[in-house]
Design a protein that fits this description.
Strand content: 5-15%
Strand order of the largest sheet: 3-2-4-5-1-6-7-8-9
Helix content: 40-55%
Radius of gyration: 29 Å
């Protein structure tokens, strides 16, 4: 910051905050520099408004002055010494801040607004630190209160910290040239690797043809009624990606324990019925199969988390660490409706699920990888008749229309055979088959894909060619 000659200071910095017995994070000189820059540069407000609110300023007088500047700027009126002085007078605050002389002094101390963006970020960081101090102090006080349940306190603490973390995420706009260059680079990479997928391969050739693999930043919803095989399909994808192709993957299971998931994966890899694996009733041949195939699964880069009632904050923290420490390229969440947004207050469950859905999409963008979330469907499917009636629809997504809105792709797992429907409209045999219904695809085509379902191995497979005719 550049200042003119020393002049009288009208604000006195409080050395100690009595609430915490420590000097609160603050930068009064930078606050004055920012306010001064706003008074001399008509375009400065647009530069800093994304970082600053009146509460960002530590000194009460500075909060009042910035409020007046913000009101003028939002009303598209000039911002200068005279207009701000007049605005403060109309607000009845001019004498509170020390009169017109204070405004003149602040303006006179700054010669340029060149560094205002950098200074505004410093103030935003100081404000966030003060919020963290206030939040943690509140949590500490509640921790001494024996009448408060510790689980409730953990939810409260997690929610408060999560809200602060969300509030601190800011992203500026970019010039179109930057976006076009990224698109060009992506297209050229795909062009030079003709025939290769641009995303994480699914292991199912027809699905890869439509999706070109699971794409980074995409939020994919895998939905279906109970007994359709959602989790089996997700685990088959996990096996194809992590075991067959050695791509690091993470699976967050809110419904099944890690041992149950391991049983299913072992069945998938060894061709041994999952019930035999669970109860240990293996023949000598099966035991040999088990022993010979198990190392392949044990060495796979798969990371499982079976925390019940996983919260958004926990998922975000763990996912970041998995990406940073293990290079994870894809996340699975089983399933969305079992998650919670701890500590945050909602008027309905639908509102909470909407928040979870938006957060999962945000996580996919933040970590630049695909997030596949399993989702339940409501009972509307059961009340409808016939082949078409039993097909899931986007309106069947349970508890929130926001899931459909936020998802880049919605994929339904549907087994007509479950409803005693053995043939489709084209006369194809549907026994032992599953329809993968791509109901929404933001980047490509929709439609149906047939896969074979081996229930005893909880495995989905590419079908024989004859099944597709």
């Amino acid at each position: 910051m550049v200042y003119k000659k020393n002049s009288r200071r009208t604000d006195k910095q409080q050395p100690i905050d009595p609430n915490y017995a420590h000097l609160q994070p603050q930068a009064p000189e930078i606050e004055r520099a920012v306010l001064g820059a706003l008074l001399i540069d008509k375009d400065a407000f647009e530069t800093v408004c994304k970082w600053l609110t009146p509460e960002t300023f530590y000194l009460p007088n500075h909060q009042k002055i910035y409020s007046a500047i913000r009101d003028l700027a939002m009303a598209e009126k000039p911002v200068d010494v005279l207009t701000v002085t007049e605005k403060l007078a109309k607000m009845g605050l001019l004498e509170d801040i020390g009169g017109p002389a204070t405004i003149g002094e602040i303006s006179g101390r700054v010669a340029t607004s060149a560094n205002i963006d950098y200074h505004a970020r410093i103030l935003a960081q100081k404000y966030l630190k003060r919020q963290l101090i206030s939040t943690t102090s509140d949590i500490q006080t509640k921790a001494f209160d024996d009448t408060i349940d510790v689980d409730d306190l953990m939810e409260h603490a997690e929610g408060r910290i999560y809200e602060l973390a969300k509030r601190d995420i800011k992203q500026d706009f970019c010039d179109i040239k930057e976006a076009v260059k990224e698109s060009y680079d992506k297209t050229m990479r795909a062009y030079s690797n003709k025939g290769e997928l641009t995303g994480v391969p699914t292991g199912y050739f027809r699905l890869d043809e439509v999706t070109n693999g699971w794409q980074n930043t995409d939020f994919i919803v895998l939905a279906g009624r109970p007994a359709m095989g959602k989790t089996s399909f997700a685990l088959s994808l996990l096996k194809n990606i992590a075991v067959d192709r050695r791509i690091p993957s993470a699976f967050f299971s809110l419904e099944m324990s890690k041992v149950q998931l391991a049983d299913r994966l072992i069945a998938n890899v060894t061709d041994i019925e999952v019930t035999k694996i669970a109860n240990g009733q293996l023949s000598d041949i099966e035991l040999s199969q088990y022993d010979s195939n198990l190392p392949t699964l044990m060495d796979a880069p798969i990371y499982i988390d079976d925390t019940p009632g996983l919260s958004l904050m926990e998922l975000r923290t763990k996912a970041r660490r998995l990406v940073r420490e293990h290079g994870v390229k894809i996340l699975f969440v089983d399933y969305l409706q079992l998650m919670n947004a701890n500590g945050m207050h909602f008027s309905s469950r639908q509102e909470e699920v909407s928040t979870i859905s938006r957060s999962l999409k945000g996580l996919a963008k933040e970590l630049n990888l695909p997030v596949i979330a399993l989702s339940q469907l409501n009972r509307g499917v059961e009340s409808r008749e016939g082949l078409e009636g039993k097909r899931p629809q986007l309106s069947d997504l349970r508890e929130s229309g926001a899931i459909e809105q936020d998802a880049d792709m919605v994929l339904f797992v549907h087994r007509p055979e479950y409803y005693n429907i053995y043939q489709d409209d084209n006369g194809r045999d549907l026994r032992g088959m599953a329809q993968m219904i791509i109901a929404k695809h933001r980047k490509g085509a929709t439609g149906d894909i047939l896969l074979s379902f081996k229930a005893e191995f909880t495995r989905f497979e590419n079908p024989e060619y004859s099944a597709l005719r």
